[in-house]
Amino acid sequence: MGAAGTMVCLLGMAIKSDFGALRSEAATFGVGGDNSYPGLLVGRQLLNLGIMGLITCASSLLAGIMIAVLLPLSEILAVLFLHEKFDGPKGIALVLSLWGFASYMYGEKVHQKKAEAQKNQLLQQQMARKTGDLELATP
């Protein structure tokens, strides 16, 4: 899927002759020369391969969580190592992505507590039926 998306993007860039724009944008931002493009392409494909591996071996939910974690992490690492500016839109994106991740984790914790409480209540009812305690056996 990732390779197909890359091919479609490359085809569109070839049709519009946008490969020259890549060089001018790279020069504007001070990114490396022509050697950096294959590295970016291979890195992106490895990221897609890793995400497909997560979906295959674990779950698509875990892959989504990892993508949500990678967004703020990539912004922070770009500021630290690439010396990018940390301006307003980048700060807003960072806050929103961290807020979304934190709210997901909180929701999972609440769901887990509810499931544990229901499990404990069911165990109490089963134990009460076995011991003959009628007060605890009724839901």
From TrEMBL:
Membrane-spanning parts: 46-71, 91-107
Keywords from the named record: Membrane, Transmembrane, Transmembrane helix, Transport
MF terms in GO: purine nucleobase transmembrane transporter activity; purine nucleoside transmembrane transporter activity
Main location class: membrane
Cellular localisation: Membrane
Family matches, as InterPro entries: PUP_plant (IPR030182)
Example of a GO cellular component annotation carried by this entry: membrane
The UniProt record lists the keyword Amino-acid biosynthesis: no
Domain of life according to the entry: Eukaryota
Family: Belongs to the purine permeases (TC 2.A.7.14) family.
Protein known as: Purine permease 3
UniProt source species: Triticum urartu (Red wild einkorn)
